[in-house]
Task: structure prediction
Amino acid sequence: VIELKSPTEVQEMRPVGAFVASVLTALKEKAAVGVNLLELDALAHKMIRDAGATSCYIDYHPSFGASPFGKVLCTSVNDAVLHGLPFDYVLQDGDLISVDFAAELNGWVADSALSVVVGTPRPEDLRVIEATEVALKAGIEAAVVGNKIGDISWAIGEVAHQYGYLVNTDFGGHGVGRTMHGDPHIANDGRAGRGLKLKPGLVIAIEPWFLISTDEIYTDPDGWTLRSADKSRGAHSEHTIAVTPKGPLILTARD
Result:
């Protein structure tokens, strides 16, 4: 079921969007060589408690998860790209880490992600991060009244193809509101002019993620972390946005 938000409800979602953005900003600043993934999770957990918010992840147990997630962050490192379950791992020089975070505040949810390299970057890592950020921008720009879901998917996929990346469409964007995941699904590649027509009040998470040399993934023994089939690295960028008569409103925009 796709639920459109009223203009008032979209405004009510601003605080949770700002909170999610603030957590990701703090995590980006914290992520460095020598920092443990569990330290990042602990920081996010503290910020959730201090804000009176609720984690969307800790008890999350969808059909594709082996058990309740148990942490408040997804931390995907190097050849991991999605759903990375934080564990006792200290970040090394040159690691590429993608951080995905969703929380509920005042009954509303927002979801966002970013990728960074800690220490000395590899050019190919910076390039795949850039590609996801450019694709995210393109997807958001396509999220205007009168367009269709396929226009967002096409815009994201076009960027991927321009950079020479394959696209996995198993996991992508989704509706956001009272819960973290809802309809519609927004694939990271598709055909323009197809699918649901975009109307004011549609709130969605748009989240391009690309791997450097494959579109095939497998699930880690932890039952959650998704890794590339060929060990190539990947990146992930995401914002929660609202479709409005004045254009897309980025609820999780970071300063």
